[in-house]
TrEMBL record, chain A:
Part of the phosphoribosylformylglycinamidine synthase complex involved in the purines biosynthetic pathway. Catalyzes the ATP-dependent conversion of formylglycinamide ribonucleotide (FGAR) and glutamine to yield formylglycinamidine ribonucleotide (FGAM) and glutamate. The FGAM synthase complex is composed of three subunits. PurQ produces an ammonia molecule by converting glutamine to glutamate. PurL transfers the ammonia molecule to FGAR to form FGAM in an ATP-dependent manner. This is Phosphoribosylformylglycinamidine synthase subunit PurS. Its main location: cytoplasm. Belongs to the PurS family. GO terms for molecular function: phosphoribosylformylglycinamidine synthase activity.
From TrEMBL, chain B:
It catalyses: N(2)-formyl-N(1)-(5-phospho-beta-D-ribosyl)glycinamide + L-glutamine + ATP + H2O = 2-formamido-N(1)-(5-O-phospho-beta-D-ribosyl)acetamidine + L-glutamate + ADP + phosphate + H(+); L-glutamine + H2O = L-glutamate + NH4(+). It is found in: Cytoplasm. This is Phosphoribosylformylglycinamidine synthase subunit PurQ. CDD domains: GATase1_FGAR_AT. The active site is at C86 (nucleophile), H203, E205. Its EC number is 6.3.5.3, 3.5.1.2. Its main location: cytoplasm. InterPro entries: Class_I_gatase-like, PRibForGlyAmidine_synth_PurQ. Part of the FGAM synthase complex composed of 1 PurL, 1 PurQ and 2 PurS subunits. It comes from Roseomonas alba.
Length: 79, 231
């Protein structure tokens, strides 16, 4: 079973990458981009077949390693 | 003083650290690899700079999970002294031995240059050779050194005197221009509540000999040599 972990900079934490991407978009002439936040997606292929258990396991992995919860928030999706 | 320097795949500043410790203490530090065990009789453990595990996931995140870090945590719990410089600071943060996080530099640029730091907390094993307010020059070289913590944590660090060093100009003024990586409140280095763990981004070990262009960083290692006299 696949699990997808979305890791994003926490609200209020400076995201210089997002800012730089925003500036670049502006430079390309894309108007009206109010804000850009850049994070990462981590795909897990799990042996677990129960979606609830897979989600719980992925959340545990995110808390312990995949995200640094001081600066990042995460969300797990079972697609 | 019996010290050990821990290296991981991708560590690259361990020889500079070895030289600084040798110069200040007259003794060769033990050079350990991440698969080694930590000897029991150490006075100081040093996590040097570099790019452990290629900075995968987050700087220091992989090294924090390596086997020897279990020993380092146990060493910390027993009140051992630990110094983390640059990637070593990032590893201490990822291990949870120091609070906060280190974000990408605000400019998004890798910064390789000299900076100035002001000693905010004197009288520790890392800073006893300086007076509070002393300003010294140090090289720095990092892409992710932008110190971040929530306001409550920053207030606690300040209130308990756990900010060790702050980025300033050469006169010791806390300015935005001196804060090249964008760190919260110009913080360059912090201490644990028991004052025995210190992490900082710049590299004082790279200015410990006139041949390096100065000895501004030497007091840190002389402080350690003086404070951690082995039985």
């Amino acid at each position: 079973m696949k699990a997808r972990v979305y890791v994003m900079p926490k609200t209020g934490v400076l995201d210089p990458q997002g800012k730089a991407i925003g500036h670049a978009l502006e430079g390309l002439g894309f108007a009206g981009v109010n804000d850009v936040r850049a994070g990462k997606v981590i795909e897990l292929d799990l042996a677990e077949t129960d979606p609830a258990k897979a989600k719980a396991a992925a959340e545990d992995m995110a808390r312990k390693l995949l995200a640094n919860t001081v600066i990042e928030s995460f969300r797990v999706e079972i697609p | 003083m019996k010290s050990a320097i821990i290296t991981f795949p991708g560590t690259n500043r361990e020889r500079d650290m070895r030289l600084a410790l040798k110069r200040a203490t007259g003794r060769e530090p033990l050079m350990l690899f991440h698969r080694d065990e930590l000897p029991k009789d150490l006075d100081l453990v040093v996590l040097p700079g570099g790019f452990s595990y290629g900075d995968y996931l987050r700087c220091g995140a992989m090294a924090a999970q390596s086997p020897i870090m279990k020993d380092v945590k146990a060493f910390a719990e027993k009140g051992g002294h630990i110094l983390g410089v640059c990637n070593g600071f990032q590893i201490l943060i990822e291990t949870g031995l120091l609070p906060g996080g280190l974000l990408r530099n605000a400019s998004l640029r890798f910064l390789s240059m000299d900076c100035h730091m002001r000693v905010e907390r004197a009288g520790t094993a890392f800073t006893s050779r300086w007076q509070k307010g002393a300003v010294f020059r140090s090289p720095m070289a990092h892409g992710d050194g932008n110190y971040f913590a929530d306001d409550a944590t920053l207030d606690r660090l300040e209130g308990e005197g756990l900010v060790a060093f702050r980025y300033t100009n050469e006169n010791g003024d806390v300015t935005e221009a001196a804060n090249r990586n964008g760190s919260a409140r110009n913080i360059a280095g912090i201490l644990s509540p028991n004052l025995r763990i210190c992490g900082l981004m710049p590299h004082p070990e790279d200015l410990v000999d006139p041949l390096m262009g100065g000895t501004d960083g030497l007091p840190m290692f002389e402080s350690l040599a003086e404070s951690l006299v082995s039985a």
